[in-house]
Design goal:
Length: 431
């Protein structure tokens, strides 16, 4: 009996570390194989090498325009780690707005000026923001910068506002148990990432309305799932380390959770109530605009459109100088770092009345060395994403629908940049 119990314990322990089954639906596999591009097919055949994961979300409407969603998967599973990079900026923006709403402090909202003090080692004070029309920082401006061209400092400031403890407790409470956001995009220790700044909200006259005290997260994290990438990497001293880079204690967002988070923002009633973010009607309108607006349409920040063109962060429709058709808008968030390229998107075609979601990630790093800035984004990653987007778009465009969707909720009025605006454009961005 003792031997049996011992054997069962061993098998249970080993089962904790056994790789979960990767899911591939035959339907999506057939759709992907219908693509004619040779590079795309080559990458799909080597899905293990490129660590490909794809989720196509088919959206159907009923007679009352109520949407229903069905996900189809290609090589998707929680055990296949990808570095989420800037896609973490999406949940941070939502959590920032949610926290503002929960605070219920008169005069404090996403447009209110913030002042960041330095309260611990590694922290940086922030009192001005030259990209904003007011010249002052705000949560609204951080979200604009995070969505338009994926600004890293904007993410750091939202991380500091929400705080490491609240970020992870909130996401876990919403059912995203495997999500983990524990690092800023700065060279900080784990201890420093647990500390967040003191933040002061100011009125228009400069008077302090509310002070958020510096905080420290004492919660523990589950780092039991190993996450390794590559065969070597350059450390912060530019010295080669001949072993895989360890991401076990880094940020983590399973691809299925990333897709669900975007769906919960664009279609909140389609997810269980506990998964929804507590946002106002104005919050939703604000998010829809900046998830889909182009840099050229945005006066503040005024980005250099030669460097940050309208296709800059729209991987499924933009490659090699291509422009998105004027009748299509993509509501999305992308990320790229350490050879991993990721995009979570909702696509609305107003001319043909079609819509779908597409979420995918690829690892484009032929030499398997990380931190050397030698990734195949231009030759493999971006071309693959473009062909993937066009293949799914073509399928969705011609598939039969019982009811044509009414997409007026996503037909937005965007900002306009004055052609006579002679302010210098922003060229240098950490993103």
């Amino acid at each position: 009996m003792r031997i049996l119990i011992l054997l069962l314990s061993v098998f249970t322990f080993l089962g904790l570390f056994a790789p979960a089954q990767m899911r591939t639906d035959s339907f999506l596999k057939r759709v992907l194989e219908s693509g004619k591009d040779s590079l795309m097919q080559q990458v799909l055949r080597q899905k293990e090498k490129y660590r490909i994961q794809i989720i196509y979300t088919r959206i159907d409407r009923d007679a009352f325009n109520k949407p229903s969603f069905r996900n189809f998967y290609f090589n998707t599973g929680d055990s296949l780690y990808y570095y989420p990079a800037s896609t973490v900026k999406l949940p941070l923006a939502l959590l920032s707005l949610e926290k503002l709403n929960r605070m219920k402090v008169p005069g404090v909202n996403k447009y209110t000026t913030l002042q960041y003090d330095s309260s611990w080692s590694g922290q940086k004070a922030l009192y001005r923001d030259s990209t904003a029309q007011t010249g002052l920082p705000s949560i609204a401006q951080f979200i604009r910068k995070a969505f338009l061209i994926s600004d890293n400092d904007a993410y750091n400031r939202m991380y500091e506002f929400v705080g490491q403890q609240e970020i992870n407790r909130s996401l876990h409470a919403k059912g995203y148990r495997l999500m983990r956001i524990v690092r800023q995009f700065m060279r900080l220790s784990e201890e420093e990432n647990r500390h967040t700044n003191q933040i002061r909200f100011l009125s228009a006259s400069g008077k302090t309305i509310f002070t958020e005290l510096a905080a420290f997260n004492r919660d523990s994290f589950d780092f039991s799932r190993p996450a390794l990438l590559g065969k070597g990497y350059l450390n912060w001293k530019d010295s080669m380390v001949n072993e895989p880079m360890n991401f076990t204690r880094h940020n983590n967002i399973p691809l299925v959770d990333l897709q669900q988070i975007l769906q919960s923002v664009l279609f909140p009633l389609s997810v269980p109530e506990k998964q929804r973010f507590r946002l106002s009607r104005d919050d939703y309108a604000f998010l829809y605009r900046y998830l889909s607006q182009y840099p050229s349409e945005t006066p503040y920040p005024k980005y250099d459109t030669a460097l940050f063109n309208d296709s800059y962060a729209k991987f499924y429709f933009a490659y090699g100088g291509r422009r998105l058709p004027d009748y299509i808008r993509v509501f999305n968030k992308v990320g790229w770092a350490y050879g991993c390229l990721t995009d979570v998107s909702y696509v609305a075609d107003f001319r043909h009345q079609t819509e779908f979601m597409l979420t995918a990630t690829i690892y484009a790093n032929e030499d398997e060395i990380l931190n050397d800035d030698k990734y195949e984004f231009e030759t493999v990653g971006f071309p693959f994403f473009y062909q993937l987007g066009q293949t799914i778009y073509k399928y969705d465009l011609y598939r039969k629908r019982k009811y044509s969707p009414d997409l007026k909720a996503f037909k937005l009025t965007y900002e306009h940049r004055d052609a006579k605006d002679d302010r210098p454009s922003i060229k240098n961005v950490d993103n």
